[in-house]
From TrEMBL, chain A:
SMART domains: AAA. SUPFAM superfamilies: MOP-like (SSF50331), P-loop containing nucleoside triphosphate hydrolases (SSF52540). This is Spermidine/putrescine import ATP-binding protein PotA. InterPro entries: AAA+_ATPase, ABC_SmlMolc_Importer, ABC_transporter-like_ATP-bd, ABC_transporter-like_CS, Mo/tungstate-bd_C_term_dom, P-loop_NTPase, PotA-like, PotA_ATP-bd. It is an enzyme of class 7 (translocase). It comes from Hwanghaeella grinnelliae. Belongs to the ABC transporter superfamily. Spermidine/putrescine importer (TC 3.A.1.11.1) family. Its EC number is 7.6.2.11. The keyword Membrane applies. It catalyses: ATP + H2O + polyamine-[polyamine-binding protein]Side 1 = ADP + phosphate + polyamineSide 2 + [polyamine-binding protein]Side 1. It comes from the Bacteria. Part of the ABC transporter complex PotABCD involved in spermidine/putrescine import. Responsible for energy coupling to the transport system.
From TrEMBL, chain B:
Gene3D superfamilies: MetI-like. It is found in: Cell membrane. The chain crosses the membrane at residues 28-55, 102-122, 131-152, 183-204, 225-247, 283-303. CDD domains: TM_PBP2 (cd06261). It comes from Hwanghaeella grinnelliae. Belongs to the binding-protein-dependent transport system permease family. CysTW subfamily. This is ABC transporter permease. It is a multi-pass membrane protein. Its main location: membrane. GO terms for biological process: transmembrane transport. GO terms for cellular component: plasma membrane. InterPro entries: MetI-like, MetI-like_sf. Residues 96-302 form the ABC transmembrane type-1 domain.
Length: 362, 313
């Protein structure tokens, strides 16, 4: 991975529909995708991630803004003039061509010699472990096999960028896990920039170098999986990736740490990502694993009542309600409760791990 | 344990055999009305035509019950009335040639016009599609004769086209379109266009347009996407439409009669002639059977091509 920018979307907007009945799929999106990185666009359905992918592929033209590839403006270039290939969600294999002909299609259209096409097809089928299926038709393949062929077909012309539109969503869980690892391997082997679209946060976290979290036509946060998970910048990111508790309170102080007071007067410390945030009403996000359940009389603990306990084996989820009625979930190790003191109705105290609570934007 | 299960299995298979017999019987009964209709309405008359083709023509009409293959011989050859030399029947062959040529051209013409039309309709949003399909089928509801005379009104010397061209000053003398092969061609293409559009529409409607995007994505330009992706996949629709147009074109009667005048006969008119002024029923019968055979061969070709498209290895 380098710091060179491969694909740049600059202030891109896309509006669908007729005037008066408009749907703004993308709203002034700017993002840099670096060369050789595995970049994931993550978001719920309808957030605009597929639209952004289609703009980069050239299937749609943006209503405003520009798409750049290696510093060149390709906004209005048709897809067949862009060195970018796509793995479609539905695979879109040509039903009348064999596996080998499908994989060789791009090279054939580029006017490569037969011997070169033959060699590349062989190599690509080996890469996806489908050499034996070369003369089959797509209808004779399973979903997982079609997926591999679609991947080989998109990689064969050696594009500078590969776009993947939820390519694993039709596979069953076991196959999906396996393909996640393989996709990552292929990305590293080929050194091609991958732009991957998914709504599956786990998929995004395991494979990506960087993730762009999208919602309602905007990119809310871009960062490594760790950054996204550990320091979500706003409420949506905090709730969409992993689980989070949200507490409403009043912040005071300056710097990276603020004191947040709840309505009942109890308070705790929380990190703030953006130090320029003014004091006042804030939302604090805390991951369940950063919530500690302690004895009710512990100093500085928030008083709470256990409402439910769900046991998972190695750990358990302890649902509690604060005085204000706000629900808080703690993930505690099953070991920590060997005495079995945690039970529904018990009065307990809640403290947070250092750097656990984070003030997030809305 | 094993005994009971095998007895059970035997009883079950007995039951199944009885159920199967029952089903076969019911299916036969259900298809009976259609069978009777086919036998009386199609196979019966066809058999009569076949028998007539091997008889001797009567003096004024009908047949004399003397078996002969003369009618079949007459299709292709003529015997000189003076010196009994056998020659190819040029006049007949010209008619066959014209029929074949005009039918093929009609098929080609409807394909050229039908493909973009069907593509246009198939790519409209849902409700508009119904409207366009409705418009395409409207001519079906109008009598063939009326539609043919409408075309005549357009192409005749004082018709729409000629008047318009003269008004523009492009021509001084009207262009003779009526009573030529071109007129027959225009008429047939107009009449049979819906038969081409509908199967093409069905094929294009089933077509997954994401494949077009996949083609563009893999460096195919518009022409290559059409030739390498769209056409091979909608081929069954093209074949179906071509057969649907070619078969009735070959036997066309009204259109060549009205637009082609008396001279530019097609097989259909020639057959009619044998049963009318020609008073040669056996020749008309043998021509009908021959036409049927040509059509059957065309259909066979279609079935084989369609099968190949379905389960190609």
């Amino acid at each position: 991975m380098s710091d060179e920018v491969a694909v740049r979307a600059e202030g891109v907007s896309k509006v669908f529909g007729s005037p008066g009945n408009e749907l703004r799929a993308l709203d002034d999106v700017t993002v840099d995708i670096r060369r050789n990185e595995f970049f994931t666009l993550l978001g719920p359905s309808g957030c605009g991630k597929t639209t952004l992918l289609r703009l980069i592929a050239g299937f749609e033209t943006p209503s405003a803004g520009a798409i750049m590839l290696d510093g060149k403006d390709i906004t209005v270039d048709p897809p067949f003039k862009r060195p970018i290939n796509t793995v479609f969600q539905s695979y879109a294999l040509f039903p009348h061509l064999t596996v080998g002909q499908n994989v060789g299609f791009g090279l054939e259209m580029m006017g490569r010699s037969n011997s070169e096409i033959d060699d590349t097809v062989e190599k690509m089928l080996a890469l996806v472990q489908m050499e034996a299926m070369r003369n089959r038709l797509p209808t004779q393949l399973s979903g997982g096999q079609q997926q591999r062929v679609a991947l080989a077909r998109a990689l064969a012309p050696q594009p500078s960028v590969l776009l993947l539109d939820e390519p694993l969503s039709a596979l069953d869980l076991k196959l999906r896990k396996q393909m996640q690892i393989e996709l990552k391997r292929m990305q590293m082997e080929t050194g091609i920039t991958f732009i991957f679209v998914t709504h599956d946060q786990e998929e995004a976290l395991t494979m990506s170098d960087r993730i762009g979290v999208m919602s309602a036509g905007n990119i809310l946060q871009i960062g490594s999986p760790r950054e996204i998970y550990n320091s979500p910048q706003n409420r949506f990111v905090a709730s969409f990736i992993g689980e989070s508790n949200f507490l409403e309170g009043t912040a005071s102080g300056t710097g990276a740490k603020r004191r947040v007071a709840l309505a009942d007067g109890h308070s705790f410390e929380a990190l703030v990502a953006d130090e320029s945030v003014s004091d006042g009403k804030v939302t604090v996000a805390v991951r369940p694993e950063f919530v500690q359940v302690v004895a009710a009389d512990t100093a500085d603990a928030l008083p709470a009542t256990v409402t439910n306990i769900v046991y998972f084996g190695t750990d358990m989820h302890c649902y509690m309600s604060l005085n204000s009625g706000t629900e808080v979930v703690a993930r505690v190790s099953a070991d920590a409760d060997r005495g079995g003191a945690l039970e529904t109705g018990a009065k307990v105290g809640i403290t947070f791990a250092p750097d656990g609570p984070r003030i997030v934007g809305d | 344990m094993t005994d009971t299960s095998t007895t059970n299995a035997r009883q079950l298979s007995d039951l199944e055999v009885r159920a199967e017999k029952e089903r076969v019987k019911r299916n036969w009964l259900l298809s009976m009305p259609a069978m009777i209709l086919l036998l009386l309405g199609a196979s019966g008359p066809l058999l009569i035509v076949l028998v007539y083709s091997f008889m001797t023509p009567g003096d004024y009409s009908g047949v004399i019950w003397t078996p002969t293959v003369k009618a079949w011989f007459q299709i292709f050859f003529t015997v000189d009335i003076f010196d009994d030399t056998v020659r190819l029947a040029d006049a007949h062959l010209t008619i066959f040639g014209r029929s074949l040529r005009l039918s093929l051209l009609t098929t080609l013409l409807t394909l050229i016009f039908g493909l973009p039309t069907a593509y246009f309709i198939a790519t409209r949003p849902g409700r508009q599609r119904t409207l366009w399909l409705f418009l395409i089928t409207i001519p079906f509801w109008t009598n063939l004769l009326i539609r043919t005379f409408a075309i005549l009104e357009v192409i005749r010397n004082e018709g729409l086209i000629n008047n318009f061209l003269r008004w523009l000053g492009v021509i001084d003398e009207p262009i003779q379109i009526l009573y030529t092969d071109t007129a027959v061609l225009i008429g047939m293409a107009y009449v049979y266009l819906p038969l081409m559009v509908l199967p093409l529409y069905a094929a294009i409607d089933r077509f997954d347009f994401r494949l077009v995007e996949a083609g563009y994505d893999l460096y195919a330009n518009r022409w290559q996407v059409l030739r390498r992706v769209i056409l091979p996949i909608v081929k069954p629709g093209i074949i179906a439409g071509s057969i649907l147009v070619f078969v009735p074109s070959l036997g066309a009667y009204v259109t060549p009669r009205v637009l082609g005048g008396g001279k530019n006969m097609m097989i259909g008119n020639f057959i009619e002639l044998q049963f009318g002024q020609g008073r040669n029923w056996p020749l008309g019968s043998s021509l009908s059977i021959l036409l049927l055979l040509v059509v059957a061969v065309a259909l066979l070709f279609y079935v084989r091509a369609a099968n190949r498209g379905g389960s190609d290895e």
